[in-house]
Specification:
Length: about 500
């Protein structure tokens, strides 16, 4: 009996020895392990989002013409570089630094950030209590938010393929990443006026995707369609040169979204980010099914490019509500936007807007519908779990119409600001350095006219050793044919 008492006493002492420090740590804040785990997850998620640039590259290269493939690749690289530099200099401070309800004004060049400190060293807004609770390094948050901005910029130029001057990409990229995108991001993610009204966009259906689409529309209206797109008022198909590359791009984007949405908790400990990953995948899958059905209805065929568009549309639409809705709602959201995509692609053609990759329906319309879906399907339990007491449940969960109304005017404000600002910037570019290449350069292809090299040189010029001798009928016939192909690309 005495031995048993000694054993119990030793056990109690051990509990006190190890338990008291743990309780003290809990009282003071997160443990170093929690900080490390959450920081690691945010950085990994940011890397996944960064990899989405490869997805955009493959998608846009696949849906552009062969003679412009290298130019698309160059555009992706330069825009990513611009994003990191501009977001480091001013964009992050305007979007996420302390300031007023409209814009931030602290942390230029990450100057207020202590490498050994936490997010509060920059005065960042505490979205969903994640930042203060987990004491994340400001550098991790910067990395995550910068790659989000890069995604929004990548969306802008999807409608402007095959005919835009390279200098226009650079100038607009500087303004968009340094000013336009951060201001709208501040309204919600920076604790600005929209967030105070209860507006919700968990991972960016409106802040990232709709903004990109709005700027794309503004640029495309000023740019005009590709040569040959509309003949006698009727749209003509200009197919991309590689559907396999385009679908590879879709799949890379799908994988990258596993960082985009689950990573937006800005932490791992205490959050079921796997639940958001499931919602994201369900919406994408339902988007594919919806687009397949829509393609059969519209085109009487199984259009593979529309299947890819359906996946992205589902991903875009679930981005805003992914943490606020149950799985069944994710399926409904994805299916609805997926089935609409083929019809919207036809509608965009009918109103004579040239959108080579379907950016307007996929990122614009789906971004709007996904943002509004919060007002329909958000559950009270999920909002409470994120300490979002200022927001209401969706209509289907007894919340009335208040949240839907907030989502409507949040979308309206984003449309008004981003479209207007982008139109002004693109107009200034058009009437100064020029927005569009010459007709001669467009016909020759941007690879050679803008960059002095071909993305697929063996298809356009003779490259020694490129083809086996057995493939030649004479010394010049192969490339005589390719010259003909050049003029028709």
């Amino acid at each position: 009996m005495r031995q048993r008492s000694l054993r119990l006493g030793a056990a109690a002492a051990a509990v006190l020895l190890f338990g008291i420090p743990a309780l003290a740590a809990a009282a003071d804040g997160p443990s170093p392990t929690d900080v490390a785990v959450n920081s690691m997850w945010v950085v990994i998620a940011a890397i996944l989002v960064l990899f989405m640039q490869a997805g955009f590259a493959m998608l846009e290269i696949g849906l552009s013409r062969m003679k412009n493939s290298g130019a698309v690749a160059g555009k992706i690289v330069i825009n990513l570089a611009i994003t990191f530099l501009m977001f480091w200099a001013i964009g992050f401070a305007l979007g996420f630094g302390d300031g007023n309800d409209f814009v931030g004004s602290a942390g230029w060049f990450l100057g207020n950030a202590d490498a050994a400190g936490d997010t509060n060293s920059l005065g960042l807004f505490d979205f969903g209590n994640a930042l203060a609770a987990y004491n994340l390094p400001v550098e991790a948050v910067f990395f995550f938010q910068a790659v989000f901005c890069a995604v929004s910029l990548a969306i802008v130029f999807g409608t402007m393929l095959d005919r835009t001057k390279f200098i226009a990409y650079i100038i607009f990229g500087v303004v968009f990443t340094g000013l336009i995108y951060p201001i709208v991001a501040h309204w919600t993610w920076g604790g600005g006026w929209l967030f105070q009204q209860g507006f919700l966009d968990f991972a960016g259906s409106s802040i990232v995707h709709l903004q990109g689409a709005l700027a794309a529309i503004a640029g495309t209206l000023l740019l005009g369609p590709r040569i040959g797109k509309f003949r006698e008022g009727k749209p003509q198909p200009i197919p991309g040169h590689s559907i396999p590359l385009a679908i590879l791009g879709v799949l890379i984007l799908w994988v990258g979204w596993m960082g985009f949405n689950p990573g937006s908790f800005l932490g791992a400990v205490g959050y079921n980010f796997a639940d958001v990953a499931i919602n994201t995948n369900l919406a994408a899958a339902a988007g594919v099914i919806g687009a397949t059905i829509g393609s059969l209805v519209m085109f009487k065929t199984l259009d593979v490019s529309q299947m890819g568009n359906g996946a992205i549309a589902g991903l875009v639409a679930i981005t805003a509500p992914c943490a606020f809705v149950d799985p069944w709602a994710a399926v409904v959201i994805g299916f609805v936007v997926g089935i609409l995509v083929p019809a919207l692609v036809v509608l965009v053609d009918k109103i004579k807007i040239d959108d080579p990759i379907g950016c307007i329906p996929v990122h614009g319309v789906s971004g709007i519908l996904g943002t509004l879906a919060v007002g329909l399907f958000a559950t009270r339990d999920r909002l409470d779990a994120l300490n979002l007491s200022g927001s209401e449940a969706g209509i289907f969960y007894g919340g009335g119409g208040h949240q839907l109304w907030v989502q409507v005017y949040g979308v309206a404000a984003t449309i008004a600001f981003t479209f207007t600002a982008s139109f002004i910037v693109f107009a200034l570019i058009k009437y100064t350095v020029g927005l569009r290449v010459s007709e001669e350069d467009e016909m020759a292809g941007l690879d050679i006219s803008e960059h002095g090299m071909y993305g697929y040189p063996e298809q356009f010029i003779e490259v020694p050793g490129a083809f086996p001798e057995s493939a030649r009928t004479d010394g010049s016939s192969l490339f005589a044919g390719s010259k003909t192909a050049t003029s028709s690309q």
